[in-house]
Design goal:
CATH superfamily: Gcn5-related N-acetyltransferase (GNAT)
Number of domains: 1
Structural class: alpha+beta
CATH topology: Aminopeptidase
CATH class: Alpha Beta
Number of strands: 7
Number of helices: 5
Length: 171
């Protein structure tokens, strides 16, 4: 089965995810890596969830919930800059701080990579990782992504800009 293993699964957003998405998106400690500039209202997030449930092939973004086998939502896998014609997309992962360091990001990336390459027939996935995000660099290496270069002053941190590394994997 696609997007699932014995430990976790990647699933579509549901309206019942509103409370956890509201908590995650409005925690300013997470904004550096989610490129968030201001809090979201529950109404805005509910509309986002409802709009995510349209036809996947017409979308350029996809947010999947990373859920443990017991039903606990631990984070999200974001798929964006989707180019169905050329078979590629950018990936990003968010894990609630309580669940980091357990290998869930690696599992989520591997599940989606398998789905994208073997079911959708895509040929390229990539991620852009801030230079100082060591845990995410480890995820990239553990999932077979290869560093393809450094993007200078790519991510704004406070009033400074930080370099980022672009990682790619091809099918």
């Amino acid at each position: 089965m696609w997007l699932k293993n014995d430990i976790l699964r990647l699933r579509a957003l549901e309206e019942t995810d509103l409370h956890i998405l509201y908590e995650w998106e409005n925690n300013s400690d997470n904004w550096l890596y989610t490129n968030t500039l201001m809090p979201f209202s529950k109404h805005t997030l509910l509309e986002y969830i409802r709009n995510c449930q349209t036809d996947f092939l017409s979308q350029e973004t996809l947010k999947l919930v990373i859920e443990l086998s017991d039903g606990t939502a631990v984070g999200t896998l974001d798929v964006f800059n989707i180019d169905h014609f050329n078979g590629r997309a950018e990936l990003g992962v968010f894990l609630d701080s309580k669940y980091r360091g357990n290998g869930y990001a690696v599992m989520a990336y591997n599940l989606f990579k398998d789905y994208a390459f073997n079911y959708l027939g895509w040929v390229n996935l990539y991620s852009i990782v801030p230079k100082t995000n060591s845990p995410m660099h480890a995820v990239m290496h553990r999932t077979g992504f290869i560093s393809s270069g450094t993007l200078k002053k790519w991510i704004k941190v406070s009033k400074e800009y930080e370099d980022a590394v672009i990682y790619c994997i091809t099918n």
